[in-house]
Each structure stands twice: as C-alpha cells, then as structure tokens.
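REVIEWER CHECKLIST
Item 1: Sequence provided? yes
Item 2: Single chain? yes
Item 3: Sequence as submitted:
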Amino acid sequence: MALVDGGRDEPANVQALCVACHLDKTNAENGERALRQAGAGRKFGRP
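Item 4: Structure as written out by the authors:
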C-alpha cells in the first residue's frame, strides 16, 4: 500500500522499479485513488 494511502514506511513496503515501471505504477495508483475519491463524493451527495 502506498504511503499516501496509509502504507507503512518499512522495507516490506518498498519496491525497486525502473523509471518506466515507476511511472506506470504511479499513474495506475493515482487513477485508482481518483476513482475512490470520486466514489466517496457521490456517497455523500456530491457530484
């Protein structure tokens, strides 16, 4: 789990990636996070 999502800052939560893989993973995580946040907005009656 990413640190920004509450993951722990410890060796077991670290993954060494090349630059291209890091960008792919970051973009995927950011997209998932945006979908979760959009869903939370609808849950409370926000657009």
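Item 5: Key structural point noted by reviewer: The longest helix spans residues 19-43.
Item 6: Recommendation: ____
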